[in-house]
Amino acid sequence: MTTSAAAAAPDTAVLLVNLGTPEAPTAPAVKRYLGEFLSDPFVVQIPKLLWWPLLYGVILPLRSKRVAKKYAEIWMEGGSPLGVHTRRLAAALQPRLPEFAVAHAMRYGEPALPARLRELRAQGVRRVLVLPLYPQYSSTTTGTVAALVEATPGAPAARVVREYATDPGWVSAVADSIRAHWQANGRGQRLLFSFHGLPQRLVDAGDPYQAQCEASTAELVRALDLAPHEYLLAYQSRFGRERWLGPATDDTLRALAGEGVREVDVVCPGFAADCLETLEEIAMENAAVFVEAGGRAMRYIPCLNDAPAHADALAALVRRELAAWRDAAA
Ligand SMILES: C=CC1=C(C)c2cc3[nH]c(cc4nc(cc5[nH]c(cc1n2)c(C)c5CCC(=O)O)C(CCC(=O)O)=C4C)c(C)c3C=C
Ligand SMILES: [Fe+2]
Ligand SMILES: [Fe+2]
């Protein structure tokens, strides 16, 4: 690097943060990743003394093997879909924000968030806007990212984007992707909005996640001009025995097939990037559930991933957030 390029090194960075994903579609790699994920007290609130023996003694040994097989079915040349799409999205964002350094990190696994923050500081970055890739806020996702940023010594000054559930640019990008999918593949009789689930207990305790999923859906319904009978909202990926948000995506698909609906489209606006929960659980498992219940076809509408419209929307969001940060400091 020349001296002038070094002098021009950006003092502000944008850090995209996603959940994280295993390094390989193997039981040991899945065990490492799930172990870190499920021992985060923001995600599972059972006291350590009870939870850890259950997690490390029963859940991980059983689940890692089963889940590794699922990852193997969706693995891409460059790695896990969530990792590949997140990396590509950061690369798509960089030319749209040329005066800033754009990087990405994961809350669990690699590239690890604390190391990335310190690396940016070492490169001369003094301020970092952290953008968790969760449109809707939950303590279990955005909240744990914000807490880790706060708890990382040696990090640049940081601001964390809380949510973008009704951001107009993001809503337009998702709505356009749904229209484009209909144009290319035909349109089903219903559109199902499927969001990742959450324990009902957390919502009752004040987590705004459900309200934001509903707000995202309302904005998308408005943008697409859908009538009430044309769409449904459901929650997927239940984990454990307690009550989670409902209705469940699989139950909803069975009920639709039972009502005689032959073709249904499913979109997952809680996921910025395709991952196990969309590519395997929705596009494979739930598509089979719908057909077994008598439906003809469940068509999955992909996440925005590294689409230009996604990068455009996030770049605009970043510029607004940085301006708000500047104003707050002034
Ligand atoms: C207590 C368990 C879980 C909570 C709470 C939870 C919230 C939550 N998760 C996402 C987004 C993703 N979750 C993903 C995978 C995944 N989630 C859980 C459990 C909880 N999630 C598990 C155990 C797993 C792993 C897969 C499995 O074992 O079934 C993923 C995909 C990761 C990938 O590598 O592809 C995403 C993304 C949100 C948005 C959320 C709360 C709102
Ligand atoms: Fe999850
Ligand atoms: Fe799942």
TrEMBL record:
Fe(2+) binds at residues 196, 277. GO terms for cellular component: cytoplasm. It is found in: Cytoplasm. Signal peptide: none annotated. The keyword Secreted does not apply. Pathway: Porphyrin-containing compound metabolism; protoheme biosynthesis; protoheme from protoporphyrin-IX: step 1/1. One of its GO terms (molecular function) is metal ion binding. Its EC number is 4.98.1.1. SUPFAM superfamilies: Chelatase. It is an enzyme of class 4 (lyase). Coiled coil: none annotated. GO terms for biological process: heme biosynthetic process. It catalyses: Fe-coproporphyrin III + 2 H(+) = coproporphyrin III + Fe(2+); heme b + 2 H(+) = protoporphyrin IX + Fe(2+). HAMAP family: Ferrochelatase. Belongs to the ferrochelatase family. NCBIfam families: hemH (TIGR00109). Catalyzes the ferrous insertion into protoporphyrin IX. This is Ferrochelatase. It comes from Luteimonas viscosa. The gene is hemH.
